[in-house]
Design a protein that fits this description.
This protein has helices at residues 2-19, 31-49. The chain is built from 2 helices and no strands. With 50 residues, the protein is an all-alpha fold. The radius of gyration is 12 Å and the shape is elongated.
Length: 50
């Protein structure tokens, strides 16, 4: 299940990096991004094993 959360976080960060310019400004995830990635990862982790 931990890997599902990490993959979800990586997807969120990847999307942010595609939209923003990491050389001009700092690109970081918001608290909501962390919460949604955690929730998505938990659900994927739970249902992928079933």
């Amino acid at each position: 299940m931990e890997s599902a959360v990490i993959v979800a976080l990586a997807r969120k960060l990847s999307t942010r990096l595609r939209r923003g310019d990491p050389l001009a400004t700092r690109v970081k995830l918001s608290k909501f991004d962390f919460l949604s990635a955690f929730t998505e990862g938990v659900f994927v982790g739970l249902f992928a094993r079933a």
